[in-house]
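Quick one: structure for this chain?
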Amino acid sequence: MEEGVVSLANMKDVAKRAQVSVSTVSHVINGTRFVSEEVQRRVKDAMDAVGYIPNVVAHSLRTKKTNTIGLVIPIGNDENSNIFIMQVVLGIDSVLRDRGYCALLANTKDELQREIEEIRRMITRQIDGLILIPSVGAHDFIPELLKEKKYVFVDRIPQGFEDRDYVVSDSFGGSYEAVDELIKRGHSKIGILCDIFGKYRNSDERLLGAQKAYQDHGIEWKPEYICECASNMEEAQEKTKWLLNHTDVTAILAVSNIMGMGVVKYLKEADIRIPEDISLTIFDDYAWTSIHTPTITTIRQDAFEMGRQSAKLLLEKLEFKEEGQIWKPRGIRLPTSLIIRESWK
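Got it. Here's what it folds into:
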């Protein structure tokens, strides 16, 4: 039986049509030797023409590789957050497909126990590596559970794993840039809607970036300007109401898109004008912010590029074979962009 045959056509048929040897066809399929792009194209065209399908299972048994990457991500009920996460996934997929890998997707719903279960399930499927957007909570289980697998964190870094491989946005720098510019425009009283401190590292960094901008301008930071808020519209509305009724802020920074939507909803219902009465900045540049009246100033993250870079980092890690060398973990922070629109004065 010919190696890798699962259809009526076999490798001899492919080799004959492509006018190459059977061993060359095998090298193209398995990536075991350099083959010129022109010959690769001829072989792949011949495979399509004769209907040949390589047997992936047989290949994985032989090479101990499945060319499958596990993606463990938190998809919940927040449609806006899900748009961001799926952009990350599309970025990952764009790299994996080009490199001959496929993705196995699992949803944790942002629940730690479910994350553990999904990672275990991934391991039983013999994945080559794992890309993970971690859930909230302690990840002490990771070193033991993934001791034989390569992995990369994306978007979030669990506490205590800052020395591992990760790809995130520069949340600190994005928040710093926005608050620094607001202060330069005369806003010294800026309210911050943020997650409960310590829950998400990227949210913490957004708050810390704002505080550093205040410090660099020599302006007193008032704790009452900070409103810890769950990531939902209803609580964001309540926190915005409290902020405007109990402080003298002239601007608001919401550290997530869903919080920003809550701010806008309350301001509209309370007939508070943007930017005449309050200036507004939202972390994440979703489509609605550019068509809202007035348009909203945002801090843009490149979710697609975040996913792309995480996949590239993991594949580089999987293919690292420098003799006598050990892999040195890398943390990649992608720059954000401040998109100034009509919600500022």
